[in-house]
Amino acid sequence: MNADAEPALREEIVAAARAMNAMGINRGTAGNVSARVAGGFLVTPSGMRYEDLGTADVVRVAMDGTAHGVRKPSSEWRFHRDIYRERPEVAAIVHTHAPFATTLACLDRGIPPFHYMIARAGGRDIRCAPYATFGTQELSDHAVRALEGRRACLLAHHGMIAVGASLESTLELAIEVETLAEMYWRALQVGEPELLSDAEMAKVLEKFRTYGQPCRAG
Ligand SMILES: [Zn+2]
Predict the structure, then answer these.
(1) From CA 90, how far away is CA 74, in angstroms rounded?
(2) Sign of CA dihedral 89, 132, 50, 118
């Protein structure tokens, strides 16, 4: 990504951060949004109200963890950095404390294949990473592991992470994960839903791959 892309990316980050609260997948100053740039990434600042956020408040963090900006980066910059380091295909990360996803995460429950759209997150389930204190290397290590072969995971007693090739598609995925979490939570109020088999989920994953654009699949 060239340097000319940075001003536009700052705008996109501010818009995505506001959108996650407006769309009900985050509340207050929780959560954070980032996008990859050459040599590092841009991330929302720590503890700022998203409605007060301007493009100059977005912080640039180098891959060695050095921050450049007028604000302190999100306290969760470490897992953003580690995900970009481990996953070269990832260009954007959205982290939220979405109510339904976080409710399941507080029960240490991931989301099993109760619905075929689980495949949108890249595999047969959405894992829940074990709990670790926010901002720590331990949390980052758990998150990277839970995201192996996936584009989303839950974080126990904390929230969720979605990753993707653009901010737009990553925000869409975060909304999809919260929608699935809500449906699963609702189903659990009535009973324990039957799960789709590994063979069926493999078929759906293959169809999504063939379509190329999972978000356009029926
Ligand atoms: Zn968080």
Answers:
(1) 19
(2) positive
- Kindly give the distance from the C-alpha atom of residue 96 to the centroid of ligand 1, in angstroms, as a whole number: 6
Closest CA to 160 of 86, 90, 94, 115: 94
- Alpha-carbon distance of 185 to 187, in angstroms, equals 5
CB 154 within 8 A of CB 174: no
Measuring CA to CA, which residue among 157, 148, 145, 76 is closest to residue 109? 157
Residue 8, helix vs strand vs coil:
helix
Which residues have a catalytic role annotated? Answer: 76
State in Å: Cα 22 to ligand 1 middle: 17
CA dist 44 and 36 (Å) reads 12
Q: Are 161 and 153 in contact (CB under 8 A)?
A: yes
Distance CA 58, CA 43 (A): 6
For residue 61, what are the β-bridge partners?
41, 67
Ligand 1 centroid from CA 209, angstroms: 30
Question: Which pTM does this prediction carry?
Answer: 0.94
pLDDT of the residue at 216:
47
DSSP code for 115: S
At 94, list the tokens.
Answer: 């959205």
C-alpha to C-alpha distances, 195 to 148, 198, 200, nearest whole angstrom: 21, 9, 10
pLDDT profile of the chain (218 residues), mean per 10? 80 94 88 96 93 94 95 96 98 97 98 98 98 97 98 98 97 97 98 97 93 53
164, 90 contact by CB (below 8 A): yes
